[in-house]
Amino acid sequence: MKNLNVDAFLAEITTSFKKYFTEFKIEFLLRTPKSLKCTIYLDAGLFIAVRYNSRNERIDFALIQNNQRIFGYDNLKEWHCHPHENPSAHIPCDKPSIDKIISDIGIVCTAIKGSGGHHG
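Above: the chain's sequence. Below: its structure in token form.
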């Protein structure tokens, strides 16, 4: 697959977010034609840190709650998932689509809200 440029990557993320989330806010920390760092706010104390580099196809999605990663996907060395049950674990996986990553994040967010995630 051809490396997506930042605009194409962002367009794909935005499309998926609109599908799975009613509200979100994207804050750009770094945006160049080749790389992107942004934070996508979902709720108080709940956000996704997104990193993308089109030069080396490095992709990182981390769902953060109360400053702790609680779920994520990234491809450092190889594609793997950090499951919600044990976010420090690395579970090897095939390369997920952006849509699958964001759908899975949505599932985790629903589970958190269902369990009445405690604040502070």
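The radius of gyration is 14 Å.
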